[in-house]
């Protein structure tokens, strides 16, 4: 049986905190460097998604297109 929604929310929050701590630790404890690294990673993911949308057929996307920022 699955966990109650409230417990799942608590677990998700704890996972987010742990992941946040790991990201900051990976950047030597520098929060500014962590934010910069996350922004670069996000930009790379947006570029990859844009490339995938360009390659995907109209039928596969069912008419959904992401408007470039």
Task: Please provide a written account of the structure.
The protein has 69 residues and is mostly helical. The chain has one domain (5-61). The protein is 74% helix and 0% strand. The chain has helices at 5-26, 31-55, 58-61. The protein starts with a helix and ends in an 8-residue tail after the last helix.
- Fraction in helix: over 70%
Could you state the order of secondary-structure elements as H and E? HHH
**Estimated share of beta-strand residues:** under 5%
* Cα-atom radius of gyration: 18 Å
Q: Based on Cα principal axes, name the global outline.
A: flat
Number of DSSP helical runs: 3
Count of DSSP strands:
0
Give the mean pLDDT. Answer: 87
Biggest β-sheet: count, sense, barrel? none
Total domains = 1
* Distance between the first and last residues' Cα: 42 Å
Uncertain spans, ≥5 residues at pLDDT below 50?
Answer: none
Based on secondary structure, the structural category is mainly alpha
Key attributes of the depicted protein:
flat, mainly alpha, 3 helices
């Amino acid at each position: 049986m699955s966990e109650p929604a409230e417990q799942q929310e608590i677990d998700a929050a704890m996972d987010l905190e742990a992941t946040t701590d790991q990201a900051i630790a990976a950047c030597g404890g520098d929060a500014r460097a962590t934010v910069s690294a996350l922004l670069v990673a996000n930009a790379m993911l947006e570029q990859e998604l844009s490339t995938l949308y360009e390659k995907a057929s109209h039928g596969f996307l069912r008419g959904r297109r992401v408007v470039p920022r």
